[in-house]
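Q: Joint fold for the lines below.
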Amino acid sequence: MPRRRSPLAIALRVAAFAAVIAGGLSACNTAGFDAVSISPIYGWTDGCNTVRVSGHGFAEDATVTLGALELPIATRGEGIDAGYWIEGVLPPAAAARAGYATVTVSSAGATSSIEDAYYYVACPAEGNLESLDTETVAAFQNVAMQGCGLSATLLVQLTPRGGTAEDAVRVPITSTCGTASTSFVAPDLPDNLYDVQLVNPAGDVVFPPYLCPADPTDTAAALLWCPTLTYGAAK
Amino acid sequence: MIFAYASVLHLLSNAIVAPAYAGETGNISGHVEDADGIAVPGALITVSGASIAGAMQATTNEQGDFRIPSVAPGTHTLQVSAPGLSPVRAAVTVRLDETTFIPFKLQIGSVEVVVIDTPPAIDTTRTAVSTELSAEALQDLPTGRSYQDAVKMLPGVSGRVDTQNGGPSQGNPSVRGEGQYGNNYLVDGISTRDPATKTFGTDVNFDAIEDIQVYTDGAPAEFGQATGMLVNVVTKDGGDEHHGSAAYYIGSSFSWGTYGILDPDLHEEVQTAKRSFLDHELSLTAGGPILKEKLWYFASADLSMGSTVYEGADPDFPSAVRSGGGFAKLSWFINPNLSLRYQFNGQISDVSNNETSDQFLPESQSHHASDDLGHQLTLKWLPSAMGELQVQALYQNGHVRVSPESGETETAGTLNLDSGVYSGNYTTLDENTRSRAGGSVKYMQLASGASGQHRMKVGAELWRLYEDRALTYTGPDEGYLYYSQPDEGYPCVTEDHSDCYGYTAYAQAGTIGHAAIVASAFAQDDWQPTPVLSMNGGARVDRETLQNSSGAVVVDSWMFSPRLGMSLDATHDKKTLVTLNVGRYYDLSGNTFADWGDTRSAFVYKQYTYDPQTDQYVLTYEQNPETTASVYCNEQSLSQLSDADRAAAESGCNGPLRPYHMDKLVVGVEREILPLFVVGLRGIVSQTVDIPEDVNVDDNYFLITNPTAKRRDYGALELTATRRFDRHWQVLASYTYSQAKGTMPGQFEVASGGQFGSNGNEVGVYDDDVNDKATRTGYFDSGFGSYLDGLSGLGTGSDDAGYYGYLPYHSFHSVKVNGSYTFNFGTTLGLVYEFDSGHAWQKRAFTETYQDYYSFTEGRGSRFMPAVNYVDLHIAHRIDLKHGRSAELNVDVFNVADFKTPITYYENDNANFGLTLYRQAPRSVRAGLKVTY
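A: Joint structure:
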């Protein structure tokens, strides 16, 4: 007659079996491969901006396209972020058309798309300067400029605050990345506060497209961005 | 001479159980025939026992059938007698909400036959997934001493981690992906759910509980107003024999040292003293007859106190809890067919140094005091042996007062964007009163005929649900610093606020007064056309009318919920059950729904903007408390708009505002493979749709409608192994593979911020204003694209595509093994083991527009916490003190192995991302001595 197992023994076996199952299941928690988002969700057609595509399950060889453009991968998530995002800088000038572009991630033979996730904004004007990388400068220092429509045919014009066109100095700009990222070398100028403008080869001011107030404490100064560079301790 | 049999072998077959109903009783039915198989009409059936007032009697009809409804759960003595035939005396076990069916075969003669009943393992007529947790079964298991904690051992219930705040559970479990706001909690058959929060409305002293009946799937039409589970707590009664208990428990953390959790300022996990606590609880019960068979009493009192020092908190200021509970029940049996019962349940608590920030900041602690008082009246009338009328009424009133602990009110709240830490005083005095008044009428009729057996039930409910809330701002008079220009630094630090872009000020606007009227009706029939086939069909209608503080009707809903279940005894031996159940389930909106669009709810909002010309802040916007910031997609709300605004609003409405509902399909098979040991497999699929959402149609107001994208999807495969409790041993084991996905984890999104990264249940989607491509294009083309910065996770041009994903309480795999074994020498060992493969979490991106972390850049629930194991043990030894008295010494050890697995990571995408915010509760011990008589 077979020996009858006690209920306690059965219960312990059930618990042991459950623990084995649980141990085996602990590694089964994956959400699979999916591309979910892109940040930022818009940028100039000029390109050259960094975008991060997020999702999960990205293999180490994952690649990204925005519309017809392939995104050169610069950085991938590591450690706790491994497989969750990849970053790249959009190629300059683009072949991109203004409007929506679908983001597609290819990973380990699979693809995942986010339809119309990224929006290419057409550059509103030539010389659309958005930022300078510094507010103070010394002679011969390299100054980076970001924006769109920053054609290498343009010139940077530095005018001392309160000065006239005759006091202005013009220097050429160099493309760092297409028409979105450029730089110029600060000329050797006396200490002062200088208004920064972009002019075309004919000498017409293309940026700022508005008249900056001569008095920086003017109310309008709080509303309008008027780029300046300061040499020395000038105010 | 008496013959005793150890089984029901000499009955026609094993007992079977008929369809279940909510309530506090079970039922007995059966069939009597002679040795030749000929029905015996006129046989007298008598049921008696300590928990039955007097005796319940019935006689068999022409077909030899009998039924006895409304029998108290437990083991009773049933006697069958008929002229010329040997009488039979049987011990019959009646379970809550079940009908025990026993067929008798009487022999010729006069010698009494005694039968010891073996309760059935499978109810082969049952389609719903429900579990009964009896007090005697629970006392052998290591569970928390609350019904909310006990139900967490059931399959499909997620409750170990508080998915709202991230830490160890706070007592509101989620079932089948419906979140902690989807459950309905009944006490003795009537809902006591909190009308505002939609979580449990009252505690019940644990030693006053006789049974807990839990429906996780396929509840019949009698039950409504929940898309999650339905928990029915049945309290003890007096009985004709005196009984009672006195118990003392002491609980303490039993783990020392430190473990690594997030220090938000250092941006790393640092070794921090573990949470420590010391609790005391005294529990007393007494019950018995005042007049035998006429008037019973039962009373229970609980007193408890304890203090907890949370991780990283100042040990000189522990969170201290003092609470008490009183329960009393009087049962009057006016005559054998009419009874009246009154019961009172009161719970009070006082918590000092209550943590409100999740970051254990001393200045943000609050004092929390509450009381809940409930009065319940139940009348039962048995107009015939085949019918039962039950009338129940309940008045429950709760009061909560939350006030600043420190009394210091001059430190404004600020959010450190680098660390994500919100700091500042707790600055609200919150006086909240909630009440539930109403009742139900239910009538049940048994019938038999050529078409088979019927059990028909109709009923109606009427409720008034009320909330009154006064919020008083106790913070700085100057207001709450709001936001500054990002490139000027954050937060505003200068005394004159000159580095700020603007700030807000609050002024008291008045109290909230929300009232809802809920009326319901249902009809159902459990039809057994053949002995092997049962069909449970029914439907219910609920209507909810909800007014906000301005008297506007914000919800006026009709909810129709059909239910159908089928069960088949596939092997014709009462050992195999195949079930199919499909139904629609609605939930009430709840009074909090009215807060949504109610600008009077707390404060008037003012915005000041810095004027550089005058170097002063000037008032640029002041909210009018008499106007609403939200428009509900119903006629009353729309009719208050101008024609042009109404046309715009209607274009954004997805039809009239509707309550959300869930459709669920459950298919299962069970087989009894050993006596009382059942294994089963079931599949569950459900979808919840029409979840309301506020949509920003323009800059002036939000529109509360039902976007089609808002939904929850749940699917599960579940294996179960159950050995019913028989005073000796029990097993309740399950493995569940499930997926809980959706766009919103709770009822609706709540505009609560979410600075700490774990407030998953309240974090929703705030990007409705860019939910379509045309709107987004407009932002880009008009040069306002920067407003969309941080809205990564939007994914596509369709609404919320990036936010559909695994919800906070989701985990793929769950294994639960609960069991106990009692040795003959009186020692009991109990085990609760749970494995969870890790709940979902995600990275949340900073959204410039809202100055907070609102969007799910990688999708909702794209990441998973580590797998977690929980092991709890129970050891008890019972000593028989004779004369019906006993003493039990018990020790429960929770988290025996002292696992320290992280259960919540920081979610916000800053320097703290991915660091451990909470770990499993450290090992703790509870020891108790309980004397019963």
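Q: Anything notable?
A: Chain B touches chain A through 59 residues (CB under 8 Å). The two ends of chain B are 32 Å apart (CA to CA).
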